[in-house]
Amino acid sequence: AELSVERRFVPESCPRVVRPGDFVRYHYLGTFPDGTRFDSSYDRGSTFNVFVGKGQLIAGMDKALVGMCVNERRFVKIPSKLAYGSEGVSGVIPPNAVLHFDVLLVDLWNLEDEVQVQTYFKPEKCPRTVEVSDFVRYHYNGTFLDGTLFDSSHNRMRTYDTYVGIGWLIPGMDQSLLGMCVGEKRMITIPPFLAYGEEGDGKDIPGQASLVFDVVLLDLHNPKDGVTIENQQVPESCERRSQTGDFLRYHYNGTLLDGTLFDSSYSRNRTYDTYIGKGYVIAGMDEGLLGVCTGEKRRIIIPPHLGYGEEGRGKIPGSAVLVFDIHVVDFHNPADSVSITVNYKPSNCTMLSKKGDYLKYHYNASLLDGTLLDSTHSLGKTYNIVLGSGQVVLGMDMGLQDMCVGERRTVVIPPHLGYGEDGVEGEVPGSAVLVFDIELLELVSGLPEGYMFVWNGEVSPNLFEEIDQNHDGEVLLEEFSEYIQAQVNSGKGKLAPGFDFEKIVKNMFTNQDRDGNGKVTAEEFKLKDQEAKEEHDEL
Asked: Where is the PPIase FKBP-type domain (predicted)?
């Protein structure tokens, strides 16, 4: 005779219950007391959707639904007077019938509802939040109020990318993303009139459905954003800053805005080497590398329109903000020459080094960032060369010019005057600027250019006869070598310093042996000043 309600299942969490005026979506199975079925929403494959307490339901159901939670199940017995009474429903429900309903509530909302936002994680640092017209990338799980999953960006393994606040999203999502930080996680509940309304989306979301989105924001930028520079660590000494056209060597870690690493030069154990300002790198990096010092560290944040755009590249998703933590190792310009800084010069400095001089010097060699490459001090011996003979890189030949014994100088050599793009495997990186701290310890004056041997006095008019010791009219290499050695030992002649004696003598002999038969005759033998300018260097 009276309404009977049996609560067969009540969920542990029940944040809200049905009140008169609420809109509900529920499934039901309707039977008579003998178990005969007369109706079922399950058979139609859709919930029954209706306002409660507005006379849209039979009186017993209007009362029975009040106080229900989403996912609650009730067994309801409704007497005839609270159902269809003495008239019944023709062909379906007889007069004065008692009705039984097995009810499962799946959704609940009210016209006065607003979007509900619950932030359950927020990063400690939040330098920027979502504003209208920003572009965001986020992951989400979309469920109905009863927990049924209808969509997930995680399942597609791709973020949802969109502008905020300009109508690209349902109104509730447009509203609820505002103010989010990158890394923040929110649970967003949206009533249907701020979602897909009475019609649903025509696919997975039915009409009048409340939607719940579990959202994590991964990325955020605005089309008006430029390159941002942060966390600069500039060395105390910064004599030069990079400009357009310079060539840089730098290390970097590249991450997305949520911290996901996509690339690192450190993992390859090799710097990234490039020109800047010439389009060799993405536009944002071209800009972000301008004005850096050697040794400087900085963070460069690049919006996607100055990075890899909507398409992305490799591990970089489309429309991604890029974060580069860089460390500048060195830079130079192709127009650079050798830089010489004199640190000490003796007061008595009359003899300056020149091409052909034999030099003995100590050096410490390092990269521009201070990394030590080599040192003669650690070897315990000097480095010895003939200046201008190609025994060292061109930049060192230039850096040792016009130096006096005892002088100390720092020589900075750009790679095109050093070891070039290839460097020296295992020793000098490619395209590296080199720094040499040099002290000249000894200088032996060389011979005039083109000479390997000179006389210290008058040349004998009978020179060939003096060399031809057995007077057979032919000079062999052994005779030639013994004679030159004797002149050097006696101080009458001087060989070019710094070269191997046997090689010099053999070269001199070969130049005199014009027919190449291993013998020099009086007709072949000529002094230097007797030679035409275009012929080989001679005595």
From this structure: 21-109, 133-221, 245-332, 356-444
